[in-house]
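Sequence in, structure out. Go.
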Amino acid sequence: RCGKTAKRARLGRWLGQLWPFAKAGRGQRRAASQSGGGWRRWVRPCLWLGGAALLAPVLGFFVLSAIFPFPREQWQSFRQHGSSLRIEARDGAVLGEYLSADDHWQFWLPVDQLDQHLQQATLAAEDRRFYQHFGIDPLATLRAIRDNLLARRRVSGASTLTMQLCRITDERPRTWPSKAIQAFRALQAEQELSKDEILEWYLNLAPYGGNRRGAEAGARAWFGKSATQLTLAEAALLAGLPQSPTRLRPDRHGDLALRRRNWVLTRMRDSGFISAEECRLAQEDPLPTGEQRRQ
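Output:
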């Protein structure tokens, strides 16, 4: 019995060393908690605050969407009333084409008919994570903040392809409130449209120089062909134009247009869309010398 008592005493001392509260009374535990374990009191409030911080933007988005719904009718007007008039014969031959109501050339094409290289070049140039983000790219936003802070001026942007589309459909001054509205509309657009539909809208509404709106009108103007039949070099040149359609016109600013096209080709190579050899060969292609008529 004495041996068992001694073993129990040793076990009690050992447990007491591992767990100081094992033999402590209620008052001692409260004192110990107040002196060394007070952080436990903050765990639950911090969890509540963290959950609220995560839920607040989501709830705020749905509340604002109810107050300011997605402008479906406005978007549809770009497709219905912004396209050029085309008159065709029974056999499909084009008898005549006329400017849209706002004096633009625009010919809508479904995304599955647009050249694959053009789609890839557009994503490589404008939004490489297009199929991964939800309308806003947090990684691009953090990168832009870092670059702008280091340069102490605006040298980088974080607009996604969806945000650019929202800017095209609702032009506003380039201010921070306008950027916030574009981000909000981009989130709505991602809820209303699929990724392929957003890409289709962008490729049919983006500016491609002069009064050419949409890739089909741009391809006809610069290459004399449809946007369904572009070469790799032509697709890269066309994809680079919406950034600054006037400054990058190949007939007026060939050096800038060539530099931009080759940069797009390099981005396509780095994104895995084309091989290094395809990139090199396409960069050797000459630029168009002027506006063309469709062949």
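Check: The first helix runs from residue 2 to 18. The CA atoms of residues 86 and 98 lie 7 Å apart.
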